[in-house]
Amino acid sequence: xxxxxxxxxxxxxxxxxxxxxxxxxxxxxxxxxxxxxxxxxxxxxxxxxxxxxxxxxxxxxxxxxxxxxxxxxxxxxxxxxxxxxxxxxxxxxxxxxxxxxxxxxxxxxxxxxxxxxxxxxxxxxxxxxxxxxxxxxxxxxxxxxxxxxxxxxxxxxxxxxxxxxxxxxxxxxxxxxxxxxxxxxxxxxxxxxxxxxxxxxxxxxxxxxxxxxxxxxxxxxxxxxxxxxxxxxxxxxxxxxxxxxxxxxxxxxxxxxxxxxxxxxxxxxxxxxxxxxxxxxxxxxxxxxxxxxxxx
Length: 296
Known about the structure:
Blueprint: E1 5-12, E2 17-23, E3 27-34, H1 46-54, E4 64-68, E5 82-83, H2 88-94, E6 104-106, E7 110-114, E8 117-122, H3 125-130, E9 139-142, E10 147-153, E11 156-163, H4 165-175, H5 189-201, H6 205-209, H7 211-217, H8 223-241, E12 250-253, H9 256-268, E13 274-277, H10 279-294
Parallel strand pairs: 1-4, 4-6, 5-7, 9-12, 12-13
Antiparallel strand pairs: 1-2, 2-3, 7-8, 9-10, 10-11
Helix pairs in contact: 2-10, 4-8, 5-8
């Protein structure tokens, strides 16, 4: 193993696992992926899976830092959420090891509380945010199954909000009348833009959703294009709900094709400064920065 390796970084999502050899500054020297995500593992299985994927990397006694769903309830070790606002040093001060792997440290998630009541949570995205060189007043948007809008200031995560956009899209396609004969998304940008426009001007999203059927019955929307129109409706509703942030820099961090769709919807919604970041690179840098804070 290269002597430049200073950290074994682990990004354990619900559906996938990525293990990285990380050098100074968060540079990824090598990485391996595996489909055994945290969502399908019992607490006693995590160590075995990690050894299967990267056991040869663990033999040199390097520190191992894990972010993501390995710290969720019922997984490797439940890690309590830290309250907003939170910074890198806060995360570092709260890492802990699972009972069966004292050489492994797991990063906690972050929560929004209001009047002492839990309002929202993130787990994994906080590491990505702290791996970005973002302006203080930025909003980091993580498109996906559960889309996150995360506000930053002064080197801290100050607030965030979760939207079930991706999961709702899948559920509507598979389980409602709107999904009948619906094609795959990503084929009709005009239909997507039409859905965004409808959502931006109609806040009653559950009523707007029925327009998928109405537009089809009227002959204005083909089955092949209806998934893109539905995607536009849901992403447009998300953008409309965050319009008060349109004066801030927006950093998109997720799958490239989905990030491009969000960028288009944000432009329609009047957002002027929209950037797309590399999610894997941000995770590695975030893990490295937490690792550095642990040493201080």
